[in-house]
TrEMBL record:
Domain of life: Bacteria
Annotated source species: Blautia fusiformis
Identification of the protein by name: Cation-transporting P-type ATPase N-terminal domain-containing protein
Domain Cation-transporting P-type ATPase N-terminal: 3-59
Length: 80
């Protein structure tokens, strides 16, 4: 069987038992009662330090380089 992205529209609609006109209002209502709304919940946001140290896992020298840059800019009297 071909991958779904290799199939024609008609083949995909047949595979998922769909039609070009979409769902009826009644089908939408039943689907929402059964599965809920198609929404994502917002996850917990990461703080700047957490992002910084997670990046250090992939780029171990990053914290050191940032620290050096902060020292250099402090000596110059500006942070850019």
């Amino acid at each position: 069987m071909k991958e779904i992205y290799q199939q024609t529209v008609e083949e995909v609609l047949e595979r998922v038992n769909g039609k070009k006109s979409g769902l009826t209002s009644e089908q939408v209502k039943r689907s929402r009662e059964k599965c809920g709304w198609n929404e994502l919940t917002e996850g917990k946001k990461k703080g700047i330090l957490q992002i910084f140290f997670e990046g250090a896992v992939y780029f171990p020298t990053a914290p050191f380089l940032v620290f050096i840059r902060l020292i250099q800019s402090d000596k110059a009297g500006t942070i850019s």
